[in-house]
Amino acid sequence: MRRQTGMLLASSIVSLLASLAVAKVVSYSFGLDAYADVALYAVSVQFGVLVFSGGVPTALITQASPSLTVALGPDDDLRGSRLHVDAWRAAARRLTLAACLVVMLAAVAVAGSGEWRLAGVPTLLIGFGVVAGTVGGYAAAELNLYQLTRDLAVMTAAAAVSGALAQLAVLWIWQLPGLLWSLAANAAVTLIVTVALTHRAVPRMSRRGERPGHPDRTRHLLRTGLPFSAANLYSTGVQYLLPLVVLAVLGRQSLGLYRSVTTITVIYMSVMLSTFAATYLPALSRADDGVVSEVVARQSKVVFALSTPVILVLFAVAPFVLRLLYAKEFEVAAPLLRWQLLGDLIRLSAWLLGYVVLAKRGGRLYTLTEAVGGSALLVGTYLGVRLHGLDGAGIGFLAAYVVYFVTVLLASRRALPGQRWVNPWMAGMLVVAVLLGVIRGLATV
């Protein structure tokens, strides 16, 4: 698991650097307005993928992984298991193609209802970006399904770098007038690279595997994927609302400081989250119920080793990091950054258990835990900024993830009773969070 995590971390870092390079070129060469357009496009595409994918990639992993554990064997009597896996893949592929068709039809309808130059072209480009992202999510799910971690890492990095190079090439040739088409070039190249590398890596589907039980599998994928998608939509909506809460209560200057801190935490947490989705979720889905806690313990060890040193360093040099990345005026946000770092230690521990609920029970129980966590974050942030100003956003963040951790711990015990969920590595992260919290609290006295 360490080697797999290392490869995925490396590919995530490469992808991050590619996106940062594009952002730097756009903001430096064309100004803040152009960068805002690119950011709006990215947010629109991400939200569209979340809506239209319907959670099908995640449902494919959780539903087909147990069958794949058997189907990977070479014996002839496993032929039925391989056909079973192929049937799940065929159902997921058809749902993905249907989602892409709906996206483009919706984009054409919206584009045709407005002025073509101002609304039509951007809408179609966003639709195409959503299609590329939806196909990319399905491709990553197939690679995860077959435990092709190296191919997934190569695909992720190659798609990000080639897409960024295509976008930069269009910008170099056409400058600012080519900004929209540079986004299309990025999406097109990313789509081509993703499909090509996935087609080369994953086993071909048997035609016989497309038939058995296909309607039932399609409905089952939707029953599993839609609650996951709904829970993520709610969590994403809360994340969009938090800056608005800070803006409404504290004003624009505090909003800028808040965004500077959340950008730092989002960068390393997104890298960690990519390894959760790529290696941890398939491992949980394949594991028998009686040994799930052992899978959690192994992943906890990896998470502890990767996250705790980074968080400790950032906690110690928070003012320097803010000055280095932004400007001296941003040092006043150091207490907020430190509270966020404490919350991230609790958040990582909660994610370890939240994925257990998703892999083994999913549906309403997982949706309930995400709803509780999102609501606690929204309420905690509002009360925090009202009572303690900008630092209160970090205090509310920490309190919300304590609530979320307790919620997923109880949900895990209900989903799979009789197992030990808080292992030594997870307990170590919680202890570090408590000790740093005591230090932070004493510093404010």
How would you describe what is shown here?
The structure is a single chain. With 445 residues, this protein is mainly alpha-helical. It folds into two domains: 2-212, no CATH class; 224-444, no CATH class. The chain has helices spanning 2-30, 32-52, 56-71, 79-112, 116-145, 149-174, 179-201, 214-250, 252-286, 292-316, 318-325, 334-360, 363-388, 390-415, 424-444. The protein is globular. The protein starts with a helix and ends with a helix.
| Strand-residue proportion | under 5%
Q: Unreliable runs, pLDDT <50, ≥5 residues?
A: 70-80, 208-213
DSSP summary, beta strand count: 0
Form type: globular
As an assembly, this protein is: single chain
Condensed summary:
This protein is mostly helical and 445 residues long.
State the main characteristics.
445 residues; mainly alpha; 2 domains; 86% helix; 0% strand; globular
